Every structure is written in C-alpha cells, then in structure tokens.
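User: what does the whole thing look like in 3D?
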Amino acid sequence: MAGENIQFREQLKKKGYKMTTQRQAILDVILQHEGEHLSTEEIYELVKKEHPDIGLATVYRTLLLLDDMELIYKLDFDDGCNRYELNRHKDDHRHHHLICTQCGGVEEVEEDLLESLEEQILKNYGFIVLNHRVKFYGYCKKCSENSPKKAGQD
Amino acid sequence: MAGENIQFREQLKKKGYKMTTQRQAILDVILQHEGEHLSTEEIYELVKKEHPDIGLATVYRTLLLLDDMELIYKLDFDDGCNRYELNRHKDDHRHHHLICTQCGGVEEVEEDLLESLEEQILKNYGFIVLNHRVKFYGYCKKCSENSPKKAGQD
DNA sequence: ATTCATGCAAATCGTTTGCAACCCA
DNA sequence: TGGGTTGCAAACGATTTGCATGAAT
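Assistant: Here's the predicted 3D structure for the full assembly of 308 residues, as structure tokens:
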C-alpha cells in the first residue's frame, strides 16, 4: 500500500515543502513496520541501516511533519518517549489499546464501541467529539493465568 | 475532607517513611486545588508561597510518592509535563476527560459508561480490565458556537 | 537561483540523582 | 541516635534549535 506515499508527496507540494530521500526513507520504515509502535529512536535506528548518514534531528523533524499531516499518530505509553503508528484511516475513530500492567504488552482492539457514549456526551455536555483515545489497563490473557499484582495507570 | 491526610500518615508509617512539613504542605496544596490538573511546576510554585525554601526535587519526589500510594493520579494532556489530580476513590474507575482542541480547555465526565465494553473485551480478548483512561477530543460547547478547525490527537 | 532540508553540535526542558546537612521517630 | 529526607547542583534523556552546508524544485 503506497497510497501514503502519494498522499505524502501531494501534501508536501501543497505546503511548499520538498520531498527528500530522508523523508522517503522514514515513511518507508514506518510503512514496513505497520502495526508496531515504534519510538523515534527505534525509527532512527531502522532508517540508519539504509541511510547511515541520517541525523536524529531529521527523524524528529520528519515525524513532527508526518504527525502534522496526520499520516502518523503519536502514542503515549508512558515509557518516556514518543511512539507513533500509521494513521490509516484519517477520518476514522482510533482503535483502543489494551496495556498489560504485568508484562507491559500492548494489544489492539479494532472495534469502536464508543459511539453511543459520544452521543451521550454531546447531549449532556454540548461537547462535540471528533476523536478519542482509550487505554485499558489490566492483565492480558497470558498474564492473568499467572498471579496478578497491581492496576496500572496513565 | 482531611481523610487523605490520615491515610497519608498511615501509609507512610506502614512503609517506614516519615511525615515531614514539606510532604504535608504538598498534599495540602493538592487538596486545596482539587479539580484542577496541576503540573509539578505549578504545585512547586504554590507550595513556595508558604515554604519559600522548598526544593523542586522534593516536589518531584513527593509527587512520585503520592502517586505510588495512589493518593494522586498522573495525567497526560500532551503538553510536555506531568499533571496530577486527586485520586478520590482508589478502586473506582476513573472519570473521562473532554479536551477541546480549539481552546485547550479540559472538562470532566463523571459517569462511567464503559462497563459493557470491558465485558466485551474480556470475552473477545481474554484481557481483564482493571482500569482505563479515556480522552475525548473535540469542540467544547463554547467553541462549537464559533468556527471549528481541526481534530486533536493523542 | 532560490528556498527549503540536512547534519552537527549546542541548547533546552522536564525530571532524576548524588551527596552532605538535616530532622523526624 | 539513626535512617529517612531535604536542598542544592550536577547529571540525565528526550527533544529542539542555530547555523553553515547541501539538495530539490
């Protein structure tokens, strides 16, 4: 799926920015690792395999750009660094994350079951929901078969 | 409501830690500003009014301690710093936050409407939900009466 | 040719840590 | 008295920025 590539070029042109090999390479890495939640540093290391001369600052700047263009999505798993995922369906509501407080694993829930909740929020608060981020903390299947410890937090 | 104070003293004793004027002062500030989402720096500034000699490191250490004891709760509004709120009902599911992408304001939704969703997650994923964090992004009542711009993230 | 993007290093920001002096239990 | 606690300053890690060079349009 190279649709993101075309979209990227167009949006760059529209804003008067330029396509460069570095930007291309960074987007490529993200596309190749769809489904993972890569940190900036991890993306940097992956890009360096093909482009050893790339600077970390360029990765930071490009990720900011891609986030701005809504091609990627910033995540926060509270581990001290920014992580990103591909933003496949720009206008869709996001999926939810299941974060295991035992092993630290992250699963994804693809269903979106919050629509009725959002109607209620509009009715009660006059707040128009455009997007949401949901994180559930608990024990994943594997860990819940062992001895659980403590609920996690943000 | 000074129940938190007593709880704090007891939990400190239980762990062999000590009550100090600084810890007292920090908890006091948090109690006095219930409902706000104070950052570490803001708490520091407020405590300094009464205790000009307090060090920022002490505030960081105490907030870590209070978070550990689950007397406060760390928030993330993606503004580059940690924010905290009083953790009134230790075992309760948290309330949700409505974040306006126009004016940046944060409202709170007190209802918890995610229980059926969590049952479904258990059924489909074998994941036992202990807690959750929900952020809705959109336009608050006031802003939606003006011209909206762009959906928010993370 | 113009303008934006890059790499590098220095700067910045929030947070953490080492340590000697200090204070609660 | 003794061990946790404090304030200070230095260290730290992630991210940002200034600037001269280099590349894309």
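In plain terms: Chain A has two domains: 1-90, 94-154. The helical segments of chain A are 3-15, 21-32, 40-50, 56-68, 115-125, 141-144.
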